[in-house]
């Protein structure tokens, strides 16, 4: 998998890809992540990439020309499965979306800034618009990191235990059941006996029942869909 991220602040995203699972994925050659400074495609010596909105109003808008030039150049080098714009008015990121994107080969992430991007960029290039929640960030960089993490961890070979990802919350529209490890008893708090029984069929039944209970209590909306 290759992910190209277009941003005016690419340095903001470098650290997450230099540690832990994301670094391992890159080091193994399972994923390539490339950052592109949008100002390199600016149209003037001031490296300008934003301007005032037509019709007036507060804030600035990311200009069409630098974005079109950058995306078009990347597209000329390879075929992309999706060109994704990180924006508060996109569809809310879900595990299903991450699952779908994890089997793609080439993705572009466009990080928005200011009041957003010229609508014509959306019309020309964007194939999917994603939000990580109903709130606004100063830019799309942190959202791009969240999206990348949710996708890359699902790529085969990235996690040491690939079955682990299949039992995450939301994989089956349920939250995860409670989990425990050693010691068996800590300050009078004991691990449920069923988990020590060795009866794996009963353990799975207990886990499913607990997942249903927790989902019903915390996220009943997941059960009503």
Description:
The structure is a single chain. By secondary structure, the chain is an alpha/beta fold. It has 2 domains: 2-153, 3-Layer(aba) Sandwich (Alpha/beta knot); 169-222, Orthogonal Bundle (Trp Operon Repressor, Chain A), CATH 1.10.1270. The protein is built from 8 helices and 9 strands. A 5-stranded parallel beta sheet has the order 2-1-6-5-7. Strand 1, helix 1 and strand 2 (32-37) form a beta-alpha-beta unit. The mean pLDDT is 94. Keywords: Cytoplasm, Methyltransferase, S-adenosyl-L-methionine, Transferase, tRNA processing. Homodimer. Specifically methylates guanosine-37 in various tRNAs. Its EC number is 2.1.1.228. It catalyses: guanosine(37) in tRNA + S-adenosyl-L-methionine = N(1)-methylguanosine(37) in tRNA + S-adenosyl-L-homocysteine + H(+).
Strand content: 15-25%
How many domains comprise the coordinates? 2
What kind of sheet is the major sheet? 5 strands, parallel
The Rg value, from CA coordinates, equals 22 Å
Question: What is the 3D form?
Answer: elongated
Main location: cytoplasm
Enzyme class: transferase
Subunit structure: Homodimer.
Domain tRNA methyltransferase TRMD/TRM10-type: 1-224
Please write out the topology.
Blueprint: E1 2-7, H1 20-27, E2 32-37, E3 50-51, E4 61-62, H2 64-77, E5 82-92, H3 95-101, E6 106-111, H4 119-124, E7 128-131, H5 141-152, H6 162-166, E8 185-186, E9 189-190, H7 200-218, H8 220-224
Parallel strand pairs: 1-2, 1-6, 5-6, 5-7
Antiparallel strand pairs: 3-4, 8-9
């Amino acid at each position: 998998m290759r992910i190209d991220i277009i941003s005016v602040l690419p340095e903001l995203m470098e650290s997450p890809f230099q540690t832990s699972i994301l670094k391992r994925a890159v080091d193994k050659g399972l994923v390539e992540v490339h950052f592109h400074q949008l100002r390199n495609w600016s149209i003037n010596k001031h490296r300008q990439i934003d301007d005032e909105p037509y019709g007036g109003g507060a804030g600035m808008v990311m200009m069409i020309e630098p974005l079109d030039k950058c995306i078009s150049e990347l597209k000329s080098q390879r075929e992309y499965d999706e060109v994704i714009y990180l924006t508060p008015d996109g569809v809310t990121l879900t595990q299903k979306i991450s699952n779908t994107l994890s089997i793609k080969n080439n993705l572009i992430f466009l990080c928005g800034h200011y009041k957003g991007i010229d609508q014509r960029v959306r019309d020309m290039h964007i194939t999917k618009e994603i939000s990580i929640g109903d709130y606004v960030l100063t830019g799309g960089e942190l959202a791009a990191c969240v999206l990348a993490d949710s996708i890359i961890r699902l790529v085969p070979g990235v996690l040491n235990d690939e079955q682990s990802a299949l039992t995450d919350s939301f994989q089956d529209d349920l939250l995860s059941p409670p989990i425990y490890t050693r010691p068996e008893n800590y300050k009078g708090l004991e691990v449920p006996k069923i988990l020590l029984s060795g009866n794996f069929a009963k353990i799975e039944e207990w886990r499913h029942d607990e997942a249903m209970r927790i989902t019903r209590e915390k996220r009943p909306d997941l059960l009503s869909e």
